Amino acid sequence: MPALKRLIVIVVFDGVDLLDITGPPEVFALLQREVDTDTGYRVLLAAETTDPITTAAGVRVLPDATFDEVSGQRIDTLLVPGSVRIDADQRVTALTDPQVTARVRQLAGTSRRIASVCVGAHILAAAGLLDGKRATTHWSTAHQLAADHPAVTVDADPIFIRDGAVWTGAGISSCLDLSLALVAEDFGEPVALRVARHLVMYLKRPSGQSQFSVPLEPVSTTRRIEDLRHYIAGHLSRPIGLAELAEHARVSERQLARIFKAELGMTPTAYIESARVELARNQLESTDATLDRIATTCGFGTVDTLIRAFRRQLATTPSEYRSGFQYAPQRQGRA
Question: pTM for the full model?
Answer without folding.
Answer: 0.65
